[in-house]
Sequence to fold (187 residues):
Amino acid sequence: MFNELDPQKGSLLISEPFMLDPRFLRSVILLCDHNSEGSLGFVLNNKTNVQIGQLLEPISTCTFPIYLGGPVAQESLFFVHSRFDLLLSGEEVAPNLYFGGDEEKLISAIQQHEIKTDEIKFFIGYSGWSTGQLDKEINENSWAVQNKYHHQIIFEGNGELLWKDAIIGLGPKYAHVANFPQSPELN
Fold:
């Protein structure tokens, strides 16, 4: 159903609309690492009911949402951001988009209200693939790969809207997929 592009660091992976694995149904994943040893990314549109202030005492009043990044290492907290100017750290994933960074500078920036929800996203867990696994799944049409997008899509808070925008971003050939119902059997 989808086009096949080579995934790379910074790519968006967009799940096929009727994916059988419920953990990735209508998911958009930011691929933060993709190399000969495997791949790592974060589901961008699976918001939890947990806020970052509930997990980190120094910023207990912060209401930034936390997303379920994937089924691996769900006891760990991760983040992506667009504020290298504040954190002076993080691994560049795409232009003006960074994975991780200096936690002390992050906490200070949040305490000083210098960083906003449309500049950072927190995740519990991540999505991972072993060597060749992601390429196999792309060849099986489980994922579409999008390499050209505006980085602000990463920080979109509405999960269904994010998935639809990512599908539409694949071009006119795929835009109709954005209107597929989540549960076609209910139509």
